[in-house]
Amino acid sequence: EDGSQGWLRYAPIANANDYITVPSRVVALNVTRGSPVYTAQQELERGIKGIFGKQLETNSSVTSNSSAIIVGTLDAYRAAYGDLEDVGDLLDDGFFLSTEGLSVIIVGNNERGVLYGAFEYLSRLAQGRFLPISTMYNPQAPIRWTNEWNNLDGSIERGYAGPSIFFRDGFVVDNVTRVSGYARLLASIRVNGIVINNVNANATLLNDRNLQGLGRLADAMRPYGIQLGISLNFASPQDFGGLPSFDPLDPKVDAWWANITDEVYKRVPDMAGYLVKANSEGQPGPLTYNRTLADGANMFARAVKPHGGLVMFRAFVYDNHISPANWTADRANAAVDFFQHLDGKFDENVVVQIKYGAIDFQVREPANPLFSTLRNTSTSIELQITPEYFGQNDHLVYLGPLWKEILETDMRADSRPSKIKDIVSGIRFKRPLGGYAGVSGVGTNATWLGSHLAMSNLYAYGRLAWDASQDAEDVLQDWIRLTFGFDEQVMEIITDMSMKSWPAYENYSGNLGIQTLTDILYTHFGPNPASQDNNGWGQWTRADKVSIGMDRTVKNGTGNAGQYSPELASMYENIETTPDNLLLWFHHVPYTQRLKSNKTVIQHFYDAHYEGAATAQKFVEQWESLKGKVDEERYENVLFEQKFQAGHALVWRDSINQFYYNLSEIPDVAKRVGNHPYRIEAEKMSLSGYQFCAVNPFHTASGAM
Ligand code: BDP
User: Fold this and answer.
1) How many A from CA of 425 to the centre of ligand 1?
2) I need a surface site. Which of 89, 359, 443, 528 has the fewest CB within 10 A?
3) Are the beta carbons of 529 and 518 closer than 8 angstroms?
4) List 382, 388, 654, 668, catalytic entry
């Protein structure tokens, strides 16, 4: 069990044949190799073989008194067998699955839907869900993509699972086996697009050899109904094309993009579209020429339009040289400041892709106010599967509950129900497009993400992108059953650990909306609260001797609260009505400020850090209770990670508490902070072969005072 099959293990179910009789034959209504319907047939053979030990017959047709698993598009089904009742209105990618009759019927509105239906059927069987059903499944949004921040040299920005599966040494890889394997996993959770390269894009992706390579990658994904997309560097016409400018309103630049886009589509006729990060963190963009972001986005939109492509234009636009001395500057305002006046000015095939929070994938952020600001522009939400700010897979953090909380947030636009999930599906503002982007981080590590338990995040991402109304714990439990089997204790323990993991991580990292408090300048790993101020990136805590938090009120602060709809704005404007977990996001308060729990802010910091770290210690014992119930390979691997997390949670706890104790000089009422009788300080040990060196940040070191 090296994790390479993810949740598609198709482990045998003891006596499965006693519970259900699956048909002995599969009839695919398209047997062209490489078509998703053909893939569905292959997957059914593989799955039924694994779960039931039974080899399906293929290449036969069905007669009225024999049973089969029939897979095909609705049109193909009707042509072969006449009408099918009860199907309902299938949308693109939707499907109908019926296991109630003699035959199992899996029909999709398109071929991709057929494949999704086959995976759904297999997932039910693999989970022992044998009760007959006839159900229609439709997606909530058309765009369900991953974003892979892969560099051409094979490294992955914010990836923690080894080198890229797409690129090596400047070029697309030759061997695409792993890419097919990834496409298979993603198709099973109904993801339909992969943007393969980093948003900090390198224009040499567009050279001839790489364009050929893109064709190869798209060919590997197509049997799984997954379309390829690419990230572009805005300055490509100049840096790569040799033009004197990259001004989006320069006709020569426009022509250059039209031409290179034609070249891309020659190799990848069904390319999904472009993803663009512009004028952000040093990346080039239209503002260089005093053009608007819409001018920039629409230039790409014109180029892909004849080919049916989309432009995902990122709202993550900000200047990373913000003056920390400027108390009214606020990076959280940037998205609305840059995009509000452009609402309605984007071409119809442009989607503005918005990170879930106003800053950057932090442990706790209010939903990005841009979601309710853009009414005449299609939008999508960007979630991060790769846990950049969440312990980078050395800590267990199941993100399903965080994503759910954001997706269920009601933005109250025009005082009407306006949940984020209904905004990005296009329903709330009646937009034709919308959806999800998940920043993945998959690499060549056998486990895909670098950790067995982290795969629940990839799984949950696909499931929620298809239907955000699903419960994060239910989704998790499906994943556990598929990944670890049916043992009740395994189910109970992994559920408990996973569901406690985000609150635990929040407790021992940054509380009350102060942000994650990681090292902010580069690694984003481990505690470094001091780095959160006096940097140009605008992730600030404004902590001093007596007070902490960003004042984002309209009355005295940066005005960020006012970017929300009036109901939310007035809630965030007042300390009394701001939820405790966002208090320091919106307000600058004394450490002695009382919370709704009646604790002071500083005492809450101390207590939460002890609680969170204690939960992480317990994860080790909990996991150890599964010895013998989980195969040795995964058991040892996860145990190693949990021990690391337990230790690192203590480092987090002590450094954050010590840091704010040093700053505020307010003692912990429980007298724990600064007092570590159990600890053996390195300075007190006699070790041979070691030498002293300064640790940065100092408060993560032993004996730091
Ligand atoms: C930040 C990452 C950085 C990305 C950036 C982005 O640290 O590596 O390039 O987001 O989303 O969180 O563009």
Assistant:
1) 24
2) 89
3) no
4) 388
